[in-house]
Fold:
Amino acid sequence: MVNGYSGWQVVPLAEISTGRWDDFVRATPAATFFHLSGWRHVIERAFGHASYYLYAEKDGVIGGVLPLFHVNSRLFSNALISTPFCSYGGVAARDDAAANVLVEAAGKLAKDLRVDYLEMRNLEADRQEWATKDLYATFRVPIDPDPDVNFKAIPGKQRTKVRRGQRMGLETEFDTTVDRHYDIYARMVRNLGTPVFSKRYFELLKEEFGRACEIMTITCDGRPVSSMMNFWFRDEMLVYYGGGTDEARQLKSNYYLYWELMRHAAENGAALIDYGRSKRGSGAWDFKEHWGWQPTQLHYEYQLFNRATVPNVSPANPKYRPLINAWKRLPVPLTRLIGPMIARNLG
Structure:
């Protein structure tokens, strides 16, 4: 337990307190799905990174939470991150003093661990004095309860592609296992030149979050052609891991998939769909903008310790281009074997 100012104390999360932590997250507007304690179990078990979940408490009441993971890689970086493999992280607090004491505690922990930097993945700018990176934006779109209103809001070109998918006889299914989804996802990321996560990671997400983790798969004559893993949090649907087969382009099944996600979200009471983060200038960014969705800048902030500049481990970094091109030529089974050993350190 670390003493803070204004009467706040920083306390490490114990298993017995996860219920209190999650109750705070669900009730706090600044908190996100990625602040839930379940991510600690998933990331520790899937990737082996040590977690440090801290909360600020005063008079028995939680005022803020901060999930942290130590990602130490010789190939990429030695960092304390809130939160790796997630779009968002950082401090979620109801009190400025609670937020400040948590950041102070995180800085002390970063020094004790001798990391190169402390990274906070914020929806809004927080630490103006820290180094920043503007590589990512998110796409958060309100959804109407009326499917007709949502369909008419889709730009004409995209609506035409959705209708084409409907004429091709595409069908929507919800999977109880990750098998079909992972097969599609693993092939897609190989084609992008990116190391794939382990199948176990996806299994753990489904296991940990239960009904809040869904897999929607689009089929054609029984063949899976597109698939998406999404999460539910409060009145939001978060569209997260997805992909399509080589056949998907011809069938326009990815357009049909996104329409089905909109329809499903509205039918189940969502007020907003979070279409996830995308890198500026990427194909995913362009795809989302073509639907008329506006990007919202994500504020990734860095307190630097043993380095002078913000790290650049993005695939957009030119020094990784030869490796990416070589990866695209590898057989998919081989990438599924060796990819997780690399991906676990990307964060």
